[in-house]
Design brief:
This protein has 143 residues and is mostly helical. The protein has helices spanning 4-23, 26-56, 61-88, 90-93, 101-127. Helix 1 (4-23) packs antiparallel against helix 2 (26-56). The radius of gyration is 19 Å and the shape is elongated.
Length: 143
């Protein structure tokens, strides 16, 4: 259940960025977007732990290949979100002369990457049964 939180926070923070760009209200940029981005980064770091455990248990080469791409995209997206977060801080804003364009562009790129990675993660779970506990049959003998 940890997995949906960073993804949802990142999608919402991108929406908050767009609302700020559209409406210009700094609350969307300085509080809502900033802290949902931070929450997504922290949540992704926490979600990486069970992901790494699942990755270490994989045996099927086809699933390992998918898992490797899933992991690569997640790490790249996390780095992009961390860069976007840094550029929103007082220290990082100087690198982009206070412009909000680069952090928003990084946000869009990061969301695209986690969307692709999410698709790959769904393929591993729903198609290949990774990290899914098989439920015992409730059938009675003779049914």
């Amino acid at each position: 259940m940890i997995l949906p939180f960073p993804i949802d926070l990142w999608f919402f923070f991108l929406l908050a960025d767009f609302i700020y760009v559209w409406r210009g209200n700094p609350v969307w940029r300085d509080y809502i977007s900033f802290y949902t981005l931070l929450g997504g980064i922290i949540g992704a770091a926490v979600a990486a732990i069970p992901g790494l455990i699942d990755w270490l248990s994989l045996k099927d080469p086809k699933v390992v290949k998918i898992a490797n791409w899933h992991a690569r995209l997640n790490v790249i997206a996390l780095l992009i979100f961390a860069a976007s977060f840094y550029l929103r801080t007082t220290s990082g804003a100087g690198l982009v002369s206070g412009s909000y364009t680069i952090p928003v562009a990084l946000s869009v790129l990061g969301v695209i990457l986690i969307s692709i990675s999410g698709y790959l993660g769904g393929e591993m779970v729903f198609k290949h049964g990774v990290a899914v506990d098989a439920q015992p049959s409730n059938r009675i003998a003779g049914d």
